[in-house]
Amino acid sequence: MSPIQIRCRPRLLSLVISWLIGISTVPAVAQEVEPLDLDAIALIREEAVARSRIMETAWFLSDRYGSRLTGSSTLRAAAEWARAQMTEWGLSDARLEPWGPFGPGWENERFYAHVVKPRPFPLIGYPESWTSGTDGRVQGEAVVAEIHSIDDFEQYRGTLRGKFVLTDPLIETRQEFEPLPWNARYTDEELEEWTKEQTPERFNHQPWVAYMRGRVPADQFARFLQQEGAAAWLRNGTFENTSTGAVVAGAVFFGYLPSFPQSPPIVTLLTEHYGRIYRTVERGMPVTAELNIQNRWFE
């Protein structure tokens, strides 16, 4: 495939930059009376309508380079591509600015998840960002750990070694037959409500709120699973109580911090697959699963 060629229009570029600088520096009162530069607006509109490169740019960033997780090689490659494109378009001194410190980077290179028994089927899911990997393929029996407080650790102590531990409760999901109002405007009252402290019941899928519905601090739960030798930590990827077919995988944001303990690999599964394992185990039938997670870490 030949590379996409994007022609540079220095005159148009200078007009756009001058227009934007003017908007950002002129006082609000002056902006109300300043006459519009209709010629510049016409050029901007013509560029957007007749020569837009939005889809090409979106393809490079989303398909060619992928998720672009902070600290990953894909983020670096995408940033280098963006810098090169800006230079090609005529911008001067396009460069990457350092920031941080952040911690080690991480990216997943291989992920395989499968139920082996009682009936084989592939699992849809993702390893959570910055989670640990496995040493090749690892098999283990799935168990449900109903841990609602730190006191519940004792009843599972000595029973989780080599096991795939399910900790999230099942959530009764519903199908949405009406389009979700992702583009809806919120009222001032609704926006104010969003600024208040969120509850685990509202965002039970978000690992940075708290694991186990906020009853067990994440670092203590991770340390417990690591000490007990669990093979993996399986989580439910449901977004609230709506089944959309998506897997809402979180990021172990604290996983790269020296103060946070190591934990077994954390995998978020499609809610239907998580539920199938959970219900089978709850009925007393053993479930054996298999994982292979290979990651790269960057300093």
> What proportion strand?
15-25%
Adjacency order of strands in the biggest sheet: 2-1-8-4-5-6-7-3
Counting DSSP H or I runs of 4 or more residues, the number of helices is 9
Low-confidence stretches: 1-21, 200-213
Number of strands: 8
Describe this structure in words.
- There is one protein chain.
- The chain is α/β, with parallel strands linked by helices and 299 residues long.
- The protein contains nine helices and eight strands.
- It has helices at residues 10-25, 28-33, 38-50, 54-64, 73-88, 153-156, 188-194, 218-228, 271-282, and strands at 105-117, 121-122, 125-127, 138-144, 164-166, 232-236, 266-269, 288-298.
- It has an eight-stranded mixed β-sheet with strand order 2-1-8-4-5-6-7-3, covered by helices on one side.
- A hairpin with a 3-residue loop joins strand 1 (105-117) and strand 2 (121-122).
- The chain is elongated.
Supply database-style keywords.
single chain; alpha/beta; eight-stranded mixed sheet; elongated; about 300 residues
